[in-house]
# Entry
Amino acid sequence: GSSGSEDEARPGTAAAAAAQKREERLRKFRELHMKRNEARKLNHQEVVEEDKRLKLPANWEAKKARLEWELKVEEKKKECAARGEDYERVKLLEISAEDAERWERKKKRKNPDLGFSDYAAAQLRQYQRLTRQIKPDLEQYEKLKEQYGEALYPTSDSLLHGTHVPSKEGVDRMVADLEKQIEKRDKYSRRRPYNDDADIDYINERNAKFNKKAERFYGKYTAEIKQNLERGTAV
# Structure
């Protein structure tokens, strides 16, 4: 009688064990399925972020880091002003002597005046000098960031033409800067006495100045060609 009851219990026990094993496999399968979906979602997000990074300008990371640094500086200045402290003095107290010496050496090496080499180099130096004088309006930048969000940072698909209207203060600032440049150029552009015997190879005064500069730097290379053209013997 006992052996018969044991034989009847074994199929039930085996069925329960099989059901438990099947349930364990299904649970592992569901976990693997969830992990695969999560990995697929993370991969898609990473692809989207990488695509955004690739569409940004090459120097965007450096610009973003500089803007964040400038924001931190502004916050530090406000904290010092609230405590009645001088920001420059506080900043100097946080700089080590080694860093100060290194920055001083770097400052001396930065943008040395190498004199005139060509017009492209002179134009580049002027561009760098003018961009260093630009003071960003960080408060306006924060307002625009709140207003536009991610749309503030353009990509290759962004349509920028006609979307930005400069403020009156910005236009006035640009006009004042242009007038300052014109005034500075006039100081260095002193009028030379007119020579009646000199060759007239220009169409206006500005062209005459350009020709004089070209002759000063490249005249020794073109003297023979010019003489041949005047004699009519050039090939």
The mean pLDDT is 79. Residues 40 and 118 are 56 Å apart (CA to CA). The chain has eight helices and no strands. Residues 18-53 form one domain.
